[in-house]
Design brief:
Layout lengths: L6 H11 L16 H5 L2 H7 L8 H9 E2 L1 H28 L2 H4 L2 H18 L7 H17 L3 H15 L4 H33 L6 E2 L9 E5 H19 L8 E5 L3 E5 H26 L5 H4 L7 E7 L3 E8 L6 H4 L9 H14 L12 H6 L4 H15 L9 H7 L9 H8 L10 H11 L3 E7 L3 E9 L14
Parallel strand pairs: 4-6
Antiparallel strand pairs: 1-2, 3-5, 6-7, 7-9, 8-9
The structure holds adenosine-5'-triphosphate and magnesium ion.
The site of magnesium ion (MG) has 4 residues, from helix 12.
Length: about 475
């Protein structure tokens, strides 16, 4: 392995010689000990630098008339901005008490971010298209490596819930902030990859796109179309569980609207809300008619799920109404939280393990030099596996798969990710994770939106969603959170 002179790893070398610090230095961590945790001046110095929020209008300007100079300045922006944002999150982890961050999952996040900050520090200034190619390969590896961060955050928060080691309010604030900034970072990196790709494929030195063009992932989509697409996916999955039963209709009211949005986010939010509504509708119908025979049940028509679309000047408001029996007040008050009761958290943790087609402990964080030493393609992927294996001694690295891997790919700049959406919508109903509504809230918040539920127990629920329109809000800085 190549000698590494980065500060994080120097500290790791010191840490590994301080055996007497056990049990404070867990076996699964090369980095986390009290020295590193409380005294890492280089990371703290970075975290004190100002972040530069980017608005989608700025991203759009980059995409509108793309020149080599603009592309290189976008690359250098990512190169200098991302380590500051990562360092800020390391600081947030440091602000939890040591025992909490010492949790296996949160520790993996801590290590990943520290290594990644160091990897960004190795990035030389990007002066040419060749430099940019190398940089794009690097950020692709960062995106790939950090897919696992989301499951670690979720499982970490559930373990913290089981142990009751942090108040629900603090845990929510911390996890939401980690996820929101992750979305921001991924959108910025994906956006740069998407610009680089479209620049590569152009024959003209200046590529002129439509005025509002932001990137290929941002589609001028019709709300009606997105609603129908997601409803079809959810309905067909539900139908496969209840063959023969009639599925609820989706009735859309109000005027259709086309606006620019990150398609994968929009579909995810719609899909989770509709999944809950359809599932509740069918469950309530079966509960109300539990004395009926199978022949009688198949003749029943479940009540429709009604969606009303109300376009506004700066936003769009969408109301989803179902007659799925609603939920009790005390249950409703808990649905937004990542923190759960110890009993529920244990149940969700079990579901995580049942659903994981990957073995979390076998996917150690990538070291800083590994981000750079990998090329593209299968052979490189395999060499990365070997190197990770050699470095960590914890076995073979596996690509992240399954529901959470799909969730992690949400910010992908690839066009409508039907397969990701399908995979998410088809996750087994019995293995619920209790994360969808809190996740949707983080996504809507990212888009200057709101998400609320009003529920009448024994009758049904209304879900109110608003989403800010890109390019019309005055305060677009809010769109981007460090
Ligand atoms: N439209 C609805 N009608 C009735 N209950 C609902 C509705 N939407 C949500 N709920 C209740 O809120 C809970 C939390 O919903 P959420 O989508 O966050 O998690 P989940 O559906 O349990 O699991 P998953 O994360 O797999 O979606 C649900 O378990 C359900 O009890
Ligand atoms: Mg759900």
């Amino acid at each position: 392995m190549q000698a590494v002179k980065q500060p994080g790893l120097r500290l790791s070398a010191i840490a590994s010689s301080l055996d007497f610090l056990m049990p404070f230095q867990p076996r699964y961590s090369d980095l986390l000990n009290e020295q590193h945790f409380y005294r890492n001046p280089s990371i703290l110095e970075l975290a004190n630098r100002p972040v530069h929020p980017v608005t989608l209008r700025q991203l759009a300007n980059f995409g509108h008339k793309l020149t080599e100079k603009k592309l290189l300045s976008s690359a250098n922006f990512v190169r200098t901005e991302l380590p500051i944002r990562l360092a800020l999150k390391v600081k947030e982890l440091q602000e939890l008490n040591f025992g909490i961050a010492n949790n296996y999952h949160l520790n993996q996040v801590y290590q990943s971010y520290c290594y990644c900050v160091n990897a960004f520090r190795r990035a030389p200034v990007i002066n040419s298209l060749e430099d940019n190619d190398r940089f794009c390969r690097f950020i692709s590896h960062v995106l790939d490596d950090h897919l696992i961060i989301l499951p670690h955050l979720m499982m970490g928060s559930l373990e913290v819930s089981v142990l009751k080691s942090l108040s629900q309010e603090k845990l929510d604030k911390f996890i939401s902030s980690m996820i929101r900034s992750r979305i921001s970072r991924r959108v910025i990196m994906e956006q740069h990859l998407s610009l680089s790709k479209s620049f590569q494929s152009q024959s003209n030195p200046v590529l002129v796109k439509p005025q509002n063009y932001i990137g290929e992932a941002f589609e001028q989509g019709s709300i009606y179309e997105h609603l129908r697409l997601t409803a079809d996916v959810v309905r067909s999955f539900l139908q496969s569980i209840y063959p023969g039963l009639k599925m609820p209709e989706l009735v859309i009211e109000g005027s259709d609207l086309k606006f620019e949005f990150l398609t994968s986010h929009l579909n995810y939010i719609f899909e989770e809300i509709l999944r809950n509504a359809f599932k509740a509708t069918i469950s309530a119908m079966l509960k109300r008619n539990k004395t009926l025979s199978q022949e009688e049940l198949v003749k029943l028509t479940p009540p429709a799920v009604v969606v009303q679309v109300v376009p506004r000047k700066d936003s769009v408001a969408i109301k989803f109404s179902d007659k799925g029996g609603g939920m009790p007040k005390d249950e409703l008050s808990k649905v937004w939280s990542f923190g759960k009761s110890p009993e529920l958290a244990s149940q969700y943790l079990k579901n995580f393990y049942k659903m994981s087609r990957y073995d979390l402990p076998d996917r150690p964080p990538m070291r800083d030099h590994q981000f750079w030493n990998m090329g593209a393609g299968r052979a490189d992927l395999e060499s990365r596996t070997d190197e990770t294996k050699a470095d960590s001694g914890t076995g073979e690295r596996k690509d992240l798969d399954g529901v959470l891997g799909d969730l992690g790919r949400m910010e992908s700049s690839k066009k409508v990710q039907k397969s990701t959406l399908l995979a998410l919508a088809r996750r087994p109903f019995e293995y619920t994770l209790g994360i969808s509504l809190p996740m949707c809230k983080v996504y809507t918040d990212y888009w200057n939106g709101t998400l609320e539920i009003y529920s009448v127990q024994g009758y049904g629920s209304d879900v109110y969603l608003t989403l800010g329109k890109i390019g019309t809000n005055h305060d677009k800085l809010q769109l981007d959170r460090a």
